[in-house]
Amino acid sequence: MISLNYNSAADLRSFLDTNGLGMRKKFGQNFLINPGVRQALVCALEAEAGDEVWEIGPGLGAMTCLLLEKGFLVKAFEIDSGFSRVLGELFAGSENFTLVEGDVLKTWPAQPAAPYLLGNLPYNIAATLLADLIEQRRFFKRMVVTVQREVAQRMAAKPGSADYSSFSVLCASMYRVKPLMVIKGASFYPRPHVDSQAVLLELKEDAAASAGNMRPSCFYPLVRQLFSSRRKTIKNNLPGFFVSKCASPGQTAAEALEKSALDGGKRAEKLSLEDFAVLAKVIEDMGIL
């Protein structure tokens, strides 16, 4: 019978050594050993008993235990085969626990949708995973994630700020982004060199149902193109979007800007979510895609 003290770095290190398990840097593994932070993250989900929750990167199950204690149906995604073995032994008797082994970036599309997501996300995949979920229209009622602090700042950034990026627009297109607590390195084992931050993403009202109307298929590729060279104006970045789509990219870009009534002299960092949406709708209506 496995027994773990999730609040002690020394005990976790001893368990790993005894069982021939190691922390693999390429997976960005850090255990959250602060029990108060773990409780706060689970509470921020505001889920109820019987609700399904995706847990990304359960590690050795510290958060998993809390989720199961609250009566949630937990689907845990774990890439580390050694940790998966431990999780299988720890929660073998729970009917509310499902383990999905492998790289979550590859395994999540085959899984049915769920209303909630919780994750102490590895730094190296956090932005990619969130972007994939949004672009492929897999929406959650609420997501609570722990990410590198600079990623959290980009997620919540407003137009005109230094951190505002295509990722900011991506998140804001479907979610209200609310930064939660800053989590210092001492709350983790191994201790990371940078601070982390918890972030809450709440799905906007009727966002999932109206996503097809709100966001033309060109919306996200267009946003990325307009941010592709931050020092350039949208007038100079936009033709690149049409290079493979029409014979006269510059002329088409000028026409799109005129119809959208946007100032081509602005940079993407100055545009609001609504500005991007207007331009995407104009391009869609032009029928050249």
Keywords:
about 290 residues; elongated; seven-stranded mixed β-sheet; two-stranded antiparallel ribbon; single chain; about 40% helix; alpha/beta
Structural notes for this entry:
With 289 residues, the protein is an alpha/beta fold. 41% of the residues lie in helices and 17% in strands. The chain has helices spanning 9-18, 35-45, 62-69, 81-90, 104-107, 126-135, 149-156, 166-172, 207-214, 219-226, 234-237, 239-242, 249-260, 273-286, and strands at residues 31-32, 52-56, 73-78, 97-101, 116-120, 142-148, 175-183, 188-189, 196-203. The strands form 2 sheets. A 7-stranded mixed β-sheet has the order 4-3-2-5-6-9-7. It is elongated.
Main beta-sheet annotation: 7 strands, mixed
Distance separating the two termini = 59 Å
Compute the average pLDDT.
93
Strand residues, percent: 15-25%
Low-confidence stretches: none
List SSEs in N-to-C order: HEHEHEHEHEHEHHEEEHHHHHH
Number of helices: 14
Q: Give the fraction of residues assigned to helices.
A: 40-55%
| Class from helix and strand fractions | alpha/beta
Strand tally is: 9
Assembly type of the chains comes to: single chain
Q: Strands of the largest sheet, in order across it?
A: 4-3-2-5-6-9-7
Global morphology: elongated
Rg computed from alpha carbons, rounded to a whole number of angstroms: 21 Å
